[in-house]
Write a sequence for this structure.
C-alpha cells in the first residue's frame, strides 16, 4: 500500500522570529495555504533541494518582495539525477536549513516531503513533463532525462502549492528557461521570477556542489567564472567570432585543469545559436573538476 500523502502541520504558520513550520505532506501543505489565502496573502514558492546557501536565501528574500507567504520546498528529487550522478551524496542538512530560514525572519513555510510520500508509486512510475528541444541541449546533452526530472517535480510543486509567484536562480540558466517554457506551453498560472547568481569574492558561483571540491580544486574552480567573464568582455568588444570565442574558452578551462563539458554562447530567450543580429546573449559553461560538475553563465547585452 502506498503511504498516504498526508501529514498534519506541526505548528501554525510562523510568526517571523520562530523556526519556520515544516509540513511533509500535501494535506498539511494545502491546509496551511488555505488559511494563508483566506487572510488575503499571496503565495510565493522557492523550490530547492536544501543545503541552503546565501544564493538560496537571496531567492527567499526576493520572494518576500512579491508575496506575503513564502513556501520553501526542500526535496532532493531523485527523478533529476542520472544513475551515475551524485543523488546519494547530495548534502541533506534540514536542521541547518531551518535555522538559516529562521534567521531571515520572513514568513516562511517549509515543505519537506520524504521521497516515498512525494512519489508514492516510486519516481520511476511518475508521469513526466517533457520540454522538447530545450531539455536536450547543453546540460541536457550530457545529463539525459535531467530536465524532464526537473520539469516534472516543479510542475508537481506548482500543483501542490498553487503559488502566485515562483522564484528560481539564474545560475541554473537552462533550468530557468525550461521552466519558463513549460509554464508558457502548459498555461500554468504562475509568474516566474529570477534571482541573480550569488558569488564568492573570487567569482565562484555559490552551489551546494562546491562543498565536494578539495582545496586545490576550489582554487582551480575560480577559472570557470574568470573564463566566462573574459569571453563576455571579448564578445562585447566584438573581438572574435562566436565559435572562436567558444574554442578559446574551452582551451582556457582545460589549461586550468578543468574538463569542459561545453562552452557556449547562446541567445538568452531560447538558448538557440546566437546570430549576428542577436543582442541579448548568454555565455554558458559546464565543466568537471574530478567528480564534481560545475556550471555557470554570464548574461550580456550587445549594442
Ligand atoms: O534548482 C534546484 O535546486 C532543483 O533543480 C529544483 C528546481 C529545486 C527542482 O528539484
Amino acid at each position: 500500500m502506498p503511504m498516504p500523502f498526508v501529514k498534519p502541520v506541526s505548528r501554525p504558520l510562523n510568526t517571523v522570529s520562530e523556526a519556520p513550520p515544516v509540513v511533509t505532506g500535501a494535506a498539511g501543505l494545502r491546509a496551511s495555504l488555505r488559511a494563508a489565502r483566506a487572510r488575503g496573502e499571496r503565495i510565493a514558492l522557492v523550490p530547492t533541494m536544501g543545503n541552503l546557501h546565501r544564493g538560496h536565501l537571496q531567492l527567499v528574500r526576493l520572494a518576500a518582495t512579491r508575496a506575503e507567504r513564502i513556501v520553501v520546498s526542500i526535496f532532493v528529487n531523485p527523478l533529476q539525477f542520472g544513475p551515475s550522478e551524485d543523488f546519494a551524496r547530495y548534502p541533506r542538512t534540514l536542521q541547518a536549513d531551518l535555522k538559516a530560514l529562521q534567521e531571515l525572519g520572513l514568513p516562511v513555510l517549509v515543505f519537506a516531503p520524504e521521497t516515498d510520500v512525494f512519489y508514492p508509486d516510486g519516481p520511476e512510475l511518475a508521469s513526466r513533463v517533457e520540454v522538447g528541444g530545450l531539455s536536450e541541449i547543453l546540460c541536457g546533452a550530457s545529463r539525459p532525462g535531467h530536465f524532464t526530472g526537473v520539469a516534472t517535480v516543479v510542475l508537481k510543486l506548482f500543483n501542490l502549492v498553487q503559488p502566485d509567484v515562483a522564484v528560481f536562480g539564474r545560475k541554473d540558466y537552462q533550468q530557468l528557461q525550461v521552466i519558463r517554457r513549460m509554464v508558457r506551453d502548459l498555461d500554468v498560472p504562475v509568474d516566474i521570477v529570477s534571482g541573480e547568481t550569488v558569488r564568492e569574492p573570487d567569482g565562484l558561483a555559490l552551489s551546494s556542489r562546491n562543498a565536494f571540491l578539495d582545496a586545490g580544486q576550489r582554487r582551480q574552480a575560480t577559472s570557470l567564472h574568470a573564463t566566462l567573464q573574459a569571453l563576455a568582455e571579448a564578445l562585447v568588444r566584438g573581438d572574435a567570432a562566436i565559435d572562436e570565442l567558444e574554442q578559446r574558452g574551452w582551451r582556457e578551462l582545460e589549461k586550468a585543469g578543468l574538463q569542459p563539458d561545453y562552452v557556449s554562447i547562446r541567445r538568452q530567450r531560447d538558448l538557440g545559436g546566437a546570430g549576428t543580429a542577436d543582442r541579448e546573449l548568454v555565455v554558458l559553461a559546464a565543466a568537471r573538476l574530478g567528480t564534481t560538475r560545475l556550471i555557470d553563465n554570464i548574461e550580456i547585452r550587445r549594442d
Observations:
- Residues 22-195 form a domain with the Rossmann fold fold (CATH 3.40.50.620).
- Strands lie at 22-23, 43-48, 69-74, 108-111, 165-169, 191-195, 259-267, 280-289, 292-301.
